[in-house]
Amino acid sequence: MEIATLVIIFLSIIALFIFLYFIPVGLWITAVFARVKVSIGELIGMRIRKVPPSIIVNSMITATKAGLDVSTQELETHYLAGGHVPSVIKALISADKANILLDFKQATAIDLAGRDVFEAVQISVNPKVITTPKVAAVAADGIQLIAVARVTVRANIQQLVGGAGEDTILARVGEGIVTSIGSAGTHKEVLENPDRISQVVLERGLDAGTAFKILSIDIADVDVGVNIGATLQTDQAAADLKVAEAKAEERRAMAVALEQEMKAKAQEARAKVIEAEAEIPKAISDAFIKGNLGVMDYYKMENIQADTDMRDSISGSGKNKPKK
Fold first, then answer.
1. 196 contacts: CB under 8 Å, gap ≥ 6
2. Which of 62, 72, 177, 207 is the most buried (most CB within 10 A)?
3. Which residues neighbour 204 within 8 Å (Cβ) at sequence distance 6 or greater?
4. How far apart are CA 244 and CA 23, in angstroms?
5. What's the DSSP call for residue 116?
6. Which whole-number Å values give the CA distances from 183 to 100, 140, 141, 168, 229, in the listed order?
């Protein structure tokens, strides 16, 4: 009997927990005292549809106390769609207190688009300051300037769905800074009047198609970078020097080749002369045999040759020309 009693008590406790889980009586009592119309059947249906009743009921209580007209079915639908119900309710309350036009359908659309709708409403009330990264640009005189800007924006509720985000704002402002500095005649003009950059950038309407409205652009800092013009000129001079050196080396190589060619031709000519001189004794011998050359003629020729060699030696233009 004791074992049976313990089993009955254990099963009763389990049954009670199951009952309280599927029928959150405490949550229903809280809703009744908060004057929120929700039935036990609706709470059980939420459990079956795997919707946390506490989130829906607490959000309904908050909305009712704030005077918002929403239903449990709308909140359930938004939750099942993957939305953040408490964030939407807080956004609606903040918008209502700040006199910002925002209805439940628009708020849920913004939330499902992946944006924090409550933060968007806060930015609409309290503008947000976005600091750009360092933007480097070059003025017309070749001096690089590095600027940092602070962009004050306000959320545009009507453009939150489909509008571009902060990254687009930063990219457009950076592009405007580069254009403004690049159009300046000298870097001193920018340093003397940095507000000129803000004016030029604001006139371009950079917030078109974004989820924000740009209120102001303030240049926080402008630093002087490197002299890009001088660097480019130095690089160009170095490149020209390399080209000149290459051309000079090419001319030197051509001269060396020409010299080698001339030496080869000279050697070839000397070889022909030596070959011709080697034929002279043979010709003289043939002349003796044929009777065309006498002994006295031969000695006269030798004397003439000796005189010629002596004159060449004296003048320094012969074969035995002394080396200087």
1. 180, 184, 189, 190
2. 177
3. 172, 176
4. 93
5. -
6. 41, 7, 10, 23, 15
* Token code pair at residue 194: 């940095």
pLDDT score of 9 more than 70: no
The dihedral of CA 38, 43, 48, 49: what is its sign?
positive
pLDDT by residue (tens digit) across 21-74? Answer: 556 667 778 877 778 888 777 877 888 788 888 888 888 888 888 888 888 889
Supply the pLDDT for residue 90.
Answer: 92
Q: How crowded is residue 213: how many other Cβ atoms within 10 Å of its Cβ? A: 14
The pLDDT of residue 151 is above 60: yes
Q: What is the mean pLDDT of residues 170-187?
A: 85
- The answer for residues whose C-beta is within 8 angstroms of residue 227's C-beta and 6 or more apart is 142, 143, 144
- Closest alpha carbon to 104 in 119, 116, 88: 88
Tell which phi-psi region holds residue 70, choosing left (phi > 0), alpha (psi between -120 and 50) or beta: beta
Q: Which two tokens stand for residue 129?
A: 């300051």
SS3 sequence, 240-305? HHHHHHHHHHHHHHHHHHHHHHHHHHHHHHHHHHHHHHHHHHHHHHHHHHHCCCCHHHHHHHHHHH
| pLDDT at residue 8, as a whole number | 67
Which tokens is 274 given?
């030596």
At 316 the pLDDT is 65
Residue 230 pLDDT: 66
Residue 180 Cα distances to 135, 141, 194, 260, angstroms = 12, 14, 10, 63
Helices 40-48, 25-33: crossing angle, 10 deg rounding:
130
Q: How far apart are the first and last CA of the chain?
A: 141
